[in-house]
Design brief:
The chain is of the alpha/beta class. The chain folds into 3 domains: 179 residues, Galactose-binding domain-like (Jelly Rolls), CATH 2.60.120; 145 residues, Alpha-Beta Horseshoe (Leucine-rich repeat, LRR (right-handed beta-alpha superhelix)); 137 residues, Ribonuclease Inhibitor (Leucine-rich repeat, LRR (right-handed beta-alpha superhelix)). It has 16 helices and 23 strands. Strand 12, helix 7 and strand 13 form a beta-alpha-beta unit. The N and C termini lie far apart (79 Å). The relative contact order is 0.08.
């Protein structure tokens, strides 16, 4: 046989493989002009596109609004638009809790985890359910104020309305990009080019990063376009872009299937080499230092190369600080089991966002902590909906050295379970934002955890008497440096007086949206006089804040860096000038909706105090 024919056969097979790959990825390249297939391409069969708005908001990490209303809450993303195409600050939109970098510059800011991959920059998320599962062809996000926060869109294989949950839940990234600065706060319809996937979905997740924004981003609605039948590419193809062949590496790196990561954890077959090359000449300490810059998946890949690097990559010293949040979609009981032998010395552990929809069981979490919890100092479990009372009991028993515990938005934990936290007397930081902690459990925690320095009770709606809580803090928590009482509904001047008298080391205090506090009682002037170390004070939406309060802050709190007095009608430009002249370190001043502070005044203050970000929001 002529050698030409085998060559033709190989080329034919290669061409066939390219076609199969193109079909498998559902013409991903058609969404990008650089990779577009040339003429005579059409999808088979021809499907009618379905357009649907979100039916329900299933889960989210935070929101600006209250748990008992619709204003500024994530629940506003369900249904048709309320505001779009209008621009401005509207209560009918979905707003996350934070924006900018201000939260990273206050006393309660936490140190970041090392080894966080550069591709993961998400800070918040929201998950939306739609009526009909479809193969997505487009996702439209209606942003009505300060757009540009969305950094990732994902689709899930699980149908939230199905009676038979799948054995394995898959998440696929439809689109991902680093945060960008958008010029202007005006409304827009954001429609990124999405990757086509090989399963139908009616569960979409948006992840956001608001660090580059000048104010809160506001989302109005999400529109999912898709077809019921999976598109199949016609074979009438005149050219295939060779760049597509390299994308398998991207899928392995960024894909959300659990199998990939678990296989990397469990690899035990190693290549045999006569020597380890130049690594034999390097000190072990230097190899450890080099490996400390790798992400967890990279460590797992490197461990497959040779026995020497396997030993270094599995050394517990490489896992002193471990964040699994970037891989939330791939972490399950099997992952934790594989990691147990490597995490016996772990001190910082971040399992935020992981384990939902049955990925991590109570028994799997408990087994891991029983092996790896003895040295834990910091435990991040934000949005861990698998957590229950048994989990909190295991934490308190297996983590005797725990100093920081984050249970933010763990809204599935029953109220009585929080009593266990009182057993951890070494706690210095406790985050209970959006949890169901009750008053009795919280009083017990405050009584026994006298080392607390940072406490977040924002949007804890089941606490009946915040004055009693504030009194206990003043009596027991003398070392408190930051306190978040965002949207507590019943604290009065009595509780504030007890707090200010007993917790005089406070540097950060959030009393935003606390309607029972009135300036006429002297509560804010009392704060200013008793807390000279204040660096951050949020009095958001308190209409009673007046010139006297601002002048007391200027006279007594000269270290102030951030002040939010959004919504007050009683503050004049003159008192703000005194504040800005006295507080040389002030960097953030929010005077949105302050009726006496118009745009002309803001421009004048900006000109005279250029180092201060003065925010004035608006509604059209």
């Amino acid at each position: 046989m002529s050698p030409v024919f085998p060559m033709l056969t190989v080329l034919s097979m290669f061409y066939y493989m390219c076609l199969r790959r193109r079909a498998r990825t559902a013409t991903r390249g058609e969404m990008n002009s650089r990779r577009a297939i040339e003429s005579n391409t059409r999808a088979l069969p021809i499907n009618v596109e379905i357009v649907q708005y979100a039916k329900e908001v299933l889960d989210f990490s935070s929101h600006y609004g209250s748990e008992n209303s619709m204003s500024y809450t994530m629940w506003n993303l369900a249904g048709i638009p309320n505001v779009y195409p209008s621009s401005g600050d509207f209560t009918q939109t979905a707003v996350f809790r934070t924006y900018g970098t201000w939260w990273d510059r206050c006393p309660s800011a936490r140190l970041p985890f090392k080894r966080t991959p550069s591709t993961f920059c998400s800070q918040d998320y929201v998950e939306l359910a739609f009526e009909e599962p479809v193969y997505p062809t487009a996702v439209h996000i209606l942003e009505t104020y300060h757009p540009g926060a969305v950094v990732r869109i994902l689709a899930c294989s699980a149908n939230p309305y199905s009676q038979n949950p799948p054995a394995e839940v898959r998440w696929e990234i439809l689109w991902s990009e680093a945060p960008t600065k958008v010029n202007g706060p005006q409304a827009r319809q954001f429609t990124p080019c999405i990757k086509q996937i090989n399963f139908p979905t009616n569960l979409i997740r948006l992840e956001v990063n608001s660090s580059l924004l000048d104010y809160y981003t506001e989302l109005d609605a999400v529109v999912l376009h898709g077809v019921k039948e999976r598109p199949v590419l016609s074979l009438k193809t005149s050219m295939i872009d060779m760049n597509d062949i390299d994308e398998d590496e991207d899928e392995e790196k960024f894909g959300c299937g659990m199998d990939t990561l678990n296989k990397q954890f469990s690899i035990v077959t190693l290549r045999e080499w006569p020597t380890n090359g130049y690594f034999d000449k390097l000190p072990c300490e230097l190899i450890q230092l080099i490996l400390s810059h790798l992400t967890v998946p990279d460590l797992c890949r490197l461990a497959q190369t040779c026995k020497l690097l396997y030993q270094h990559c599995c050394d517990p010293l490489q896992y002193i600080h471990l964040s699994l949040q970037p891989y939330w979609a791939r972490i399950n009981d099997t992952s934790l089991e594989y990691l147990q032998s490597r995490c016996t010395l772990i001190q910082w552990l971040n399992l935020s966002w992981t384990g939902n929809r049955g990925a991590i069981s109570v028994s799997g979490f408990s087994r891991f902590l029983k092996v790896c919890g003895s040295e834990l100092v910091r435990l991040e479990l934000s949005c861990g909906h698998f957590l229950n009372e048994t989990c909190l009991e295991v934490i308190t028993e297996m983590c005797p050295n725990l100093q920081e515990l984050n249970l933010s938005s763990c809204d599935k934990i029953p109220p009585q379970a929080f009593n266990h936290i009182a057993k951890v007397g070494s706690l210095k930081r406790l985050i209970l934002y959006r949890t169901k902690v009750e008053q009795t459990a919280l009083l017990s925690i405050l009584n026994f955890c006298s080392e607390l320095q940072h406490l977040s009770l924002g949007s804890c709606v089941m606490i009946e008497d915040y004055d009693l809580i504030a009194s206990m803090m003043g009596a027991k928590c003398k070392k408190l440096r930051s306190l978040d009482l965002w949207r507590c509904k019943n604290i009065t001047e009595s509780g504030i007086a007890e707090l200010a008298s007993g917790c005089q080391l406070l540097e950060e205090l959030d009393l935003g949206w606390c309607p029972t506090l009135q300036s006429s009682t002297g509560c804010f002037t009392n704060l200013a006089r008793k807390l000279p170390n204040l660096q951050k004070l949020f009095l958001t939406a308190n209409r009673s804040v007046c010139d006297t309060d601002i002048e007391e802050l200027a006279a007594n709190c000269t270290h102030l860096r951030q002040l939010d007095i959004l919504g007050t009608r009683m503050v004049s430009p003159a008192s703000l000038r005194k504040l800005l002249e006295s507080c040389k370190d002030l960097s953030l001043l929010d005077v949105s909706f302050c009726s006496q502070i118009d745009n002309r005044v803001v421009l004048e203050l900006n000109a005279n105090f250029p180092n201060v970000f003065i925010k004035k929001s608006f509604t059209q």
